[in-house]
Amino acid sequence: MRTALVIGTGLIGTSIALALTARGVTVHLQDRDHDQARTAASLGAGTVGPAPGAVDLAVVAVPPARIAEVLGDAQRRGLARGYLDVASVKGGPRRELADRGCDLRTYLGTHPMAGRERSGPTAATADLFEGRPWVLTPTPDTDTEVLNLALELIALCRAVPVVMEADAHDRAVALVSHTPQLLSSLVAARLADADDTAVRLCGQGIRDVTRIAASEPRMWIDILSANPGPVADVLTAVAGDLEETVRALRSLASADDAKRGEGAGGIEDVLRRGNSGRARIPGKHGQTPTAYATVAVLISDRPGELARIFADAGQAGVNIEDVRIEHATGQQAGHVQLMVEPQAADRLTEVLRGRGWAIRA
Question: Got the DSSP string for 124-163?
């Protein structure tokens, strides 16, 4: 691939363009918001303006509802040898393209499983897709050249290709992406009118649950409008679990010992099923999840503190597998949680204590 056209210079489109230009591909940028396209170009994502001829690959990075319109227009104008989209929903756009009589041989639906809470070109990064799954939904009609161009794009973005059927993809993302967004927003919405005293008690748990509730609503309306059925199916199942959990909690408040026992059993069931589901989420590098040990260290909010603790861990010969920071409300301090292999936890604790760090038991 030597030339590419990116249509749509939001977070995903601009990140793709940045990754391609960094690896020597000449990228042309197009967006109906000309100011946004110019912003992407100023960041080094490519050049604004038409290519002198057909490019190797056109990447359509617009909301799902606009895929068929934009991609169909690009095909009619002969802008590229191959075309793909990167929308988060695959079945609907493909059917609409077929209804419009578009050439499905030169088109491939794809979806990079990456994003951020922020949107727009200024949030884009060339490494957004590194190590992330990138779904391909080819059909028997998909031209081999287009599939190869898509695989080359994924390699240049350093993502991991995953082949799926379009409707199976839509059901999957309803479960692992779209429903979590709504549930996060529902929990965060409870905080909008909560007492200030309650909000000041927010700890890491609710920060984790509500992190993606900061996402742009308009973007999610576009996504959910293109995949409402599968999301509604998952939420229906969640609603059933919620009803059972509410009944179990009411039973726990009963004066009847038998009812309290039933309530405890109901709560334990949902918690254990949650344990089982959580354990299926792939761990580091997509491997089977590992139960890491956590070493929690008190850390002050000063420049260089994180670098110092990582350097001390390195001196101990311990690899930090993951890290989280739990901020202390109203204080210039917090706890950094260092996740390490269980057999390394005692050695890391001993070395860090010897270097003056306060370890939380």
Answer: --TTTTTT-EEEEE--TTS-HHHHHHHHHHHHHTT-EEEE
Helix runs in 7-118, H state only:
11-22, 34-42, 67-76, 91-99
d(CA 22, CA 35): 22
Q: Are residues 268 and 323 in the same domain?
A: no
Task: Taking the CA atoms of 97, 99, 105 and 111 in sequence, report the sign of the dihedral they define.
Answer: positive
Please check whether residues 16 and 119 belong to one and the same domain: yes
CA–CA distance from 231 to each of 172, 183, 226 (Å)?
10, 11, 10
Contact residues for 295 (Cβ-Cβ < 8 A; gap 6+): 337, 338, 340, 345, 348, 349, 352, 359
Q: Find where tokens 């979806």 sit.
A: 111
**216 and 240, same domain (yes or no):** yes
Domains of the chain: total: 3
329 with 274, same domain: the answer is no
Under 8 Å between Cβ of 160 and 112: no
Edge-to-edge strands of the sheet including 322-327? 322-327, 333-340, 293-300, 358-360
- The model's pLDDT over 194-218, given as tens digits with 9 standing for 90+, comes to 999 999 888 888 888 998 898 889 8
Confidence of residue 22 (pLDDT cuts 50, 70, 90): very high
Looking at the structure, tell me whether residues 118 and 56 fall in a common domain.
yes
Residues 265 and 259: their CA atoms lie apart, in Å, by: 10
**How many DSSP H helices and E strands does the chain contain?**
14, 12
Q: Select from 164, 190, 224 the last residue of a domain.
A: 164
We report the CATH number of the domain holding residue 69 as 3.40.50.720
* Domain match, 90 and 209 both: no
111/241 same-domain check: no
Helix H or strand E segment including 205: helix 204-210
Domain boundaries, position 307:
293-360
Taking a C-beta distance cutoff of 8 angstroms, is the pair 209, 156 a contact? Answer: no
Does the structure show a pLDDT above 60 at 257? yes
CATH number, domain with residue 237: 1.10.3660.10
Residue type, 144: T
- CA separation for the pair 133, 10 (Å, rounded): 20
Cβ–Cβ < 8 Å for 12, 87: no
